[in-house]
Amino acid sequence: MSTRNNHTMNMTTSQGAARPSMATSSGGAVKARQLAQLHAQLAQLSNNLSDTENLLRMTSVQAEAMRGLGSWHAGMFMAASKLGEEAVRDQGQGDSRST
Which Pfam families does the record match to this protein (predicted)? Predict the structure, then answer.
């Protein structure tokens, strides 16, 4: 019986030795898969950053255009205000002459 126990023990030991090598090879596959996923995510991140950079550049150009429009509108409001004041003053002078 002791021979049988030794034989069983040897099989367990030899099987135990095979398992870590299988775990190592499957661990290598897992690591390779994770690295591939990280590479894909890095590529996606790089694309997204490039898109963001282009959008920021476009936003900057549009902000400058909006600044120009704001200045133009401010000028129009000032001109309209001046014309309105002149019209009120001329109308007031015309009313005082007719009285």
Answer: DASH_Hsk3
Here the tokens at position 22 are 């299988």
Instruction: Please give the Cα distance from 71 to 82 (Å, whole number).
Output: 16
Q: How far apart are CA 88 and CA 99, in angstroms?
A: 17
Distance, CA of 87 to CA of 93 (rounded, Å): 10
The distance from CA 62 to its chain's CA centroid, rounded to whole angstroms, is 19
53-81, pLDDT tens digit by residue? 999 999 999 999 999 999 999 999 999 99
Encoded tokens for 15: 């099987």
Tell me how far apart the alpha carbons of residues 21 and 17 are, in angstroms, rounded to a whole number: 7
> How far, in Å, CA of 49 to CA of 53, rounded?
6
DSSP conformation class of 1: -
Cα–Cα distances in angstroms (integers) from residue 10 to residues 23, 50, 53, in the given order: 20, 60, 64
What are the pLDDT digits (tens) for 29-54? 999 999 999 999 999 999 999 999 99
